[in-house]
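Input (structure):
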C-alpha cells in the first residue's frame, strides 16, 4: 500500500464466501477511495474464482489465511493498520455443525478472539461482527405476531448458532472490558449470487436444473425470513459507519416463507414438476421459525431493504442460470461425497 493514500483501510474476513464476496464488490464499488483487504482461508465454502473480477483492482488485496492463526493475523494488522474490521469468516452451515461441531467452535469463537486481540493492539476504529438471527433460537409457527428484537434472549439450538452466540458474547465482553469499539449485526437468512449450493435456495435451484430430487426436511413447514444479500450489505455499511459503539442491530425484511413455499416457487420459475420434491428425515433440533424485527436499524440508521422476495428469487434464479460454470465447478467430487454423506441415509425416512 506504499505511496497510495486511502481514506479507510477495511479488513473483510471471509470475503471469498457468499455474503463476504458480495460485500467486497459492494464496498469497492461504493467507496473508490477505500482499500479492501480480504482474509480468507478458502475452505470448501470459499472460492477464489468468485473474487476474480476484483483481483486486479489496485484497491483490493487478497490474503489466504486462517483467522485463528495469531501470528499471521497480527502481522497482517501490523502491516495494514486497518481502520475497520468486518468479520464474516465463519463455518456457516447448520447441518455440517451437527456432523462436526469442533471446527465451528474454533473458527467462529477463537477466530473472533484472535481478530479482536489484533484489533485492540492496533487500535481499529470499529470491529464489526457479522452475526445471525439464529442466536435467538426459534419462534413458534402459530404466533405470527412474535419477532426477534435486539432484546430477545440468546437461546441457541445448533452447534452453529451456539458458536455464533458465544462469539457475540465475547465481542460484547471485549467492548465492556477493553473498550474495543464494536458493533454486531444479526441478520436473517440471505439469498442471492455466489451462495454455496449446500444452502436451501442454491441447492434446490442447482438440483432442479438437473432434474434431481429436492430434499425437503420434515414436512417443509419451517419458516425462514429471507433477505436479498445486497440489502444485508447496505445495512452493514450503515452500521459500520453510523452505528453506535457497543450496539446490536437486527437486519431483516419481513419476507417470511415456509421452506415448501420457497421450493415450489423455484420449481414454478424453472418450469419443473412438483414430483421432484422428496420429503426426507428432519434436521435434528430443527428451528421452526425465524422472524426479524428490524425497526431499530430502520429507525436509528434509516436502513430499508429494497428487494422483495418475489423479485429477489427471480434475480437469483437468473443468476444461477447465467453462471452455471460457477456452481458446476463447485459441485465436484468433494461436494458429491458431502451430498451422499448428508442425504444418503435420510431419503425415504421422513421422521
Ligand atoms: P460462507 O460459508 O459462504 O463463507 C464463509 C467464508 O469464510 C468462506 O469464504 C470461508 O473460506 C471463510 N472461512 C471459513 N473459515 C475460515 C477461517 N478459519 N479463516 C478465514 N476464513 C475462513 O458463509 P456466508 O453465508 O457468506 O456467511 C458469512 C457470515 O454471515 C457468517 O459469519 C455467517 O454466520 C453470517 N450470516 C450468514 C447468513 C446466511 O444466510 N448465509 C445469515 C446471517 C448471518
Ligand atoms: P439452510 O439454507 O441450511 O439455512 P438455515 O438452516 O441456516 O436456516 O436451510 C434453510 C431451511 O431449509 C431450514 O429450515 C432447513 C431447510 N432445508 C431443507 O429442507 N432441505 C435442505 O436440503 C436444506 C439444505 C435445508
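Output (sequence):
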Amino acid at each position: 500500500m506504499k505511496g497510495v493514500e486511502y481514506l479507510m483501510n477495511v479488513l473483510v474476513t471471509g470475503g471469498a464466501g457468499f455474503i463476504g464476496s458480495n460485500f467486497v464488490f459492494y464496498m469497492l464499488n461504493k467507496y473508490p477511495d477505500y482499500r479492501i483487504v480480504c482474509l480468507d482461508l478458502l475452505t470448501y465454502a470459499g472460492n477464489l474464482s468468485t473474487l476474480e473480477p476484483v483481483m486486479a483492482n489496485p484497491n483490493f488485496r487478497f490474503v489466504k489465511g486462517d483467522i485463528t492463526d495469531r501470528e499471521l493475523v497480527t502481522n497482517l494488522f501490523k502491516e495494514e493498520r486497518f481502520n475497520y474490521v468486518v468479520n464474516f469468516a465463519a463455518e456457516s452451515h447448520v447441518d455440517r455443525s451437527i456432523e462436526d461441531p469442533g471446527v465451528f467452535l474454533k473458527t467462529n469463537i477463537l477466530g473472533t478472539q484472535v481478530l479482536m486481540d489484533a484489533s485492540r493492539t492496533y487500535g481499529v476504529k470499529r470491529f464489526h461482527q457479522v452475526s445471525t438471527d439464529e442466536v435467538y433460537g426459534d419462534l413458534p409457527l402459530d404466533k405470527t405476531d412474535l419477532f426477534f428484537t435486539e432484546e430477545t434472549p440468546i437461546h441457541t439450538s445448533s452447534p452453529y448458532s451456539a458458536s455464533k452466540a458465544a462469539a457475540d458474547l465475547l465481542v460484547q465482553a471485549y467492548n465492556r472490558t477493553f473498550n474495543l469499539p464494536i458493533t454486531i449485526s444479526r441478520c436473517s437468512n440471505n439469498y442471492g449470487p455466489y451462495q454455496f449450493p449446500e444452502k436451501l435456495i442454491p441447492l434446490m435451484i442447482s438440483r432442479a436444473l438437473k432434474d434431481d430430487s429436492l430434499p425437503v426436511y420434515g414436512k417443509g413447514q419451517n419458516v425462514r425470513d429471507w433477505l436479498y444479500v445486497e440489502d444485508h450489505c447496505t445495512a452493514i455499511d450503515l452500521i459500520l459507519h453510523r452505528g453506535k459503539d457497543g450496539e446490536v442491530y437486527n437486519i431483516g425484511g419481513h419476507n417470511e416463507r415456509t421452506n415448501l413455499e420457497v421450493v415450489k416457487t423455484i420449481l414454478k420459475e424453472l418450469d419443473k414438476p412438483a414430483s421432484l420434491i422428496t420429503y426426507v428425515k428432519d434436521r435434528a433440533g430443527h428451528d421452526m421459525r425465524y422472524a426479524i424485527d428490524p425497526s431499530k436499524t430502520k429507525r436509528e440508521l434509516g436502513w430499508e431493504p429494497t428487494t422483495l422476495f418475489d423479485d429477489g428469487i427471480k434475480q437469483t434464479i437468473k443468476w444461477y442460470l447465467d453462471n452455471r460454470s460457477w456452481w458446476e465447478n463447485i459441485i465436484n467430487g468433494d461436494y458429491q461425497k458431502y451430498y451422499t454423506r448428508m442425504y444418503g441415509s435420510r431419503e425415504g425416512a421422513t421422521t
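Notes: The chain has twelve helices and 13 strands. The CA atoms of residues 94 and 103 lie 12 Å apart.
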